[in-house]
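User: Before I run my own analysis I want an independent prediction to cross-check against. Here's the chain; please return only the structure tokens and, at the end, one sentence I can use as a sanity check.
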Amino acid sequence: MFFSHGTCHSKGVLVLVKNNLDFNLQTVRTDPEGRYIMLDAIIQDSRYCLLNIYAPNKCSELIQFFQNISKETAECDSLTIVGGDFNVILDEVLDGREGNKKRKESAKYVEELYVEHDLIDISRIRNPSETRFTWRQKTPIIQIRLEYWLVSDCLQVDIGTVDITTATKSDHSAITLGMNGLDESVRLPSFWKFNSNFVNDPDYCQLISANYNVWLEEFNEVLVKRVLWDLIKYRIRQCTIKYSKTKACQRKAKLQEVEECIKECSYKCDKDPSPQTLRNWNLSKQNMRTCTTLLHRELSYALVQLGTKCWREITNTFSILKIPIKRKPA
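Assistant: Structure tokens:
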């Protein structure tokens, strides 16, 4: 994780790198005000300059900012990928709707950045006449595109997907860029751990209670209590893993449904920014925010210590089986 933070209320940029990516960092350059971070790195034997920016709002500050960015990128003799909030409209016709669509003077400095470093707006190259926006205002209705991906022209064939997706906790939409040729890591089977939140799940508790007597009947010939307990724990584990997978599939399906709804509403807003479509878009964002909040709660595992309720449930089970419990000294 590489970052350059601004104040606690504004600014700040961050770059996250996967642990399993073939990534060899060379240098890091940051802005003390949290406006940009530049990584010079070797990724799978190719040298890249990765630049994440958060441009200021005022035109005079924008001009100085892009001049500084141009100087910084001039020192990087490598493939360049620039992404972030440019806070400027580059195309008055396609990048803005309603409001003041007049190009700022700072836009020409972005275009100079194109020419000097052989960069292209890959999203506009892929969608030359499409109107997509990354920031919206409800009253009065204004839609503009402020976020861009600028990449080296020679990287066109290596770019897979370029898209705009809704960010639930921001007034700006997120922009995504997918690269071809990056080695996909193979996900190995993970070590299963019990999610202690299931103890508070009525459906799970009912499922275990309903099967408990069945398991006792299944192992009625086992006379050793500890062996019986190990067998029942094995069945509980099997049942819990199956229940966990079912819940995960349900969560994934729900999130996909909400994401598709947001995407559809976003497209409608781009084409027809009526008050009704904007209301539908905001409602879908609220639904997405609710889903992600519930998901985070469900995934808050107690990995090291069991909660009080979980320990009480296990204690009760031991009592039923008449197995003494020995607590370790604190």
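Sanity check: The two ends are 37 Å apart (CA to CA).
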